[in-house]
Specification:
The protein has 252 residues and is mainly alpha-helical. It contains ten helices and two strands. It has helices at 2-5, 10-23, 31-56, 62-85, 88-108, 123-139, 145-154, 159-183, 201-221, 227-251; strands at residues 195-196, 199-200. Strands 1-2 form a two-stranded antiparallel sheet. The longest helix is centred in the first third of the chain and has 26 residues, at 31-56. It is globular.
């Protein structure tokens, strides 16, 4: 799905990991933390393959990277620290809210909204924009494509350039977050086997070992598929995911 749509796989990995861990009867207080941390660990691996491809295709804007990486990393650090101290219930609510916004955007936005011909000239504004992308992305365990791609297109960047640059930024979101969350929760006894803090190595290896290859397949298949229709189908999937989380969290 990440290859088909150009969105990070974290938006799928997090809820699936969450429900699997609940099914295995791990404490609800920590399953969202584990799902988020492990998703970031997966993104660290999968983004490397994606970055190499996009650099070869000359889709990466290095000027944007130099401008945004400081804010992205700062946002990731503060976001992952916030995730480590926020309760599992609040993290679920944050994921539901942000995933719902992403789903609505994917369902109804056909053409990008252009607000400027280029990035803001102000270093402070760029710092704030990139910080928010890093902060909210790591808070729900995604690589940031769902936020950074629309943002870059609003600043008149072509979609291939936005996707390639966003994929590179995803590593700088995921890596600091995964490191911080791997040290958080290390004093908890009821975490799953192969856990380093909230980061579960079993989830990381199982998912990344296949997603590295299937992301490339998805990217190739996407050439022959109507992306607007596909994005709307995926938005329905996301809405049902949000509904499932609401039912599990508030009703069952």
């Amino acid at each position: 799905m990440a290859g088909l749509l150009g969105v990070g796989g974290g938006i799928i990995i997090v809820p699936i990991s969450y429900f699997v861990l609940l099914y295995l009867n791990y404490p609800t207080d920590y399953v969202m933390h584990i799902a988020i941390a492990s998703s970031l660990g997966v993104i660290c691996f999968t983004s490397m393959s994606s970055i190499r491809t996009h650099i070869k295709l000359k889709n990466v804007n290095f000027a944007i990277l130099r401008t945004w990486i400081p804010g992205i990393v700062l946002g990731s650090i503060l976001g992952s620290y916030s995730a480590s101290i926020i309760s599992g219930a609040i993290l679920v609510n944050i994921f539901i809210f942000l995933a719902f916004l992403i789903a609505i955007n994917m369902a109804f936005q056909k053409d990008p909204i252009i607000i400027s011909k280029d990035l803001p000239k102000s270093k402070f504004i760029n710092l704030i924009v990139s910080f928010l992308i890093g902060f909210f992305s790591v808070l729900i365990g995604i690589g940031g494509g769902s936020f950074s791609v629309p943002t870059l297109t609003m600043f008149s960047k072509k979609i291939h350039e936005a996707v390639g640059t966003s994929a590179t930024l995803g590593f700088f979101i995921a890596f600091p977050g995964a490191i911080i969350l791997s040290f958080s929760g290390s004093n908890i006894d009821s975490l799953p086997p192969f856990s380093f803090g909230y980061l579960n190595l079993a989830i990381v290896l199982l998912v990344s070992s296949t997603s590295i290859f299937t992301a490339n397949i998805g990217a190739k298949v996407s050439v022959n598929i109507n992306k607007i229709t596909l994005r709307r189908i995926f938005s329905i999937f996301l809405l049902f995911t949000c509904l499932s989380l609401i039912i599990e969290h508030y009703i069952i």
